[in-house]
Design goal:
The protein has about 80 residues and is an all-alpha fold. The chain has one domain: ACP-like (Non-ribosomal Peptide Synthetase Peptidyl Carrier Protein, Chain A). α1 packs antiparallel against α2.
Length: about 80
C-alpha cells in the first residue's frame, strides 16, 4: 500500500467519507465531519501510520489533504507514486 493510499484510508475512516468523495484537493471547508475533534484524530492517526506527530500548531494549520502531504514530505515521508 502506498503512502497516498494509507492517508486516503486514514482520512476516509476519520472523516466518514465514501471512497468516491476523496480527492487530493479535498479541504476542511468541504467536509462537515472535519472539525476540531477530527483534527486531533488526524494528528494521532498520522503519528500511528507515518511515525510523525504533528505539533498542535501544525495540526491546526492543516486545511486540506495537500497540507498533510506537504507537511509529511518536509519530514522525509514520500508521497511520490
Amino acid at each position: 500500500m502506498t503512502n497516498r493510499e494509507k492517508l486516503q484510508e486514514l482520512l476516509q475512516d476519520i472523516l466518514l467519507l465514501d471512497p468516491s468523495e476523496f480527492h487530493l484537493d479535498l479541504s476542511r471547508d468541504e467536509i462537515e465531519t472535519w472539525d476540531s475533534m477530527s483534527v486531533v484524530a488526524i494528528a494521532v492517526g498520522v503519528h500511528e501510520e507515518f511515525g510523525y506527530h504533528p505539533t498542535p500548531e501544525e495540526a491546526m494549520r492543516i486545511r486540506g489533504v495537500r497540507d498533510i502531504i506537504e507537511l509529511l514530505e518536509t519530514k522525509g515521508i514520500s508521497f511520490a507514486e
